[in-house]
Design a protein that fits this description.
Blueprint: E1 13-17, E2 20-24, H1 27-33, H2 36-40, E3 44-47, E4 54-65, E5 69-80, H3 88-101, H4 106-111, H5 114-124
Antiparallel strand pairs: 1-2, 1-3, 4-5
Length: 129
């Protein structure tokens, strides 16, 4: 049986948009930062820190405003698309390309482990605030 923590994305969550990399430290941070129209248009491609593909989707949520008005808001949902890290090699390649584009030496990137690539990219990436 798979534990609940194994079914949750492990941070950082790494999301690409048109060559830019965004790193999030939690699902909640990613969900509040990513734009629903961009998710619907397939602009983003995301992975968790283990190399598992993320499923990015949108949902409509009804909310009460000032306790009186009921409004509908479109929200982003982030979940795992897979339980095994089947996209680890793809993620490592993308991280090397990203880090090379921001000036990291190619020889250093070749020698980095997967975990080192994830750490380096997540500290170098753009932050959506």
């Amino acid at each position: 049986m798979t534990s609940t923590s194994e079914r949750l994305p492990h941070p950082p969550l790494l999301v690409w948009e048109s060559g830019d990399l965004y790193a999030f430290q939690s699902v909640a941070e990613a969900e509040s930062s990513l734009e629903p129209p961009d998710v619907k248009n397939g602009i983003y491609r995301g992975f968790d820190g283990d190399g598992r593909l993320l499923a990015l989707s949108t949902t409509i949520r009804r909310e009460r405003l000032l306790g009186v008005l009921s409004i509908s808001r479109e929200r982003v949902s982030v979940a795992l698309a897979e339980e095994s890290p089947n996209h680890r090699d793809e993620l490592a390649g993308n991280l090397r390309l990203f880090l090379a584009a921001v000036g990291k030496p190619a020889e250093a990137l070749t020698a980095m482990t997967f975990e080192e690539l994830v750490t380096e990219a997540s500290t170098t990436s753009k932050a959506i605030r």
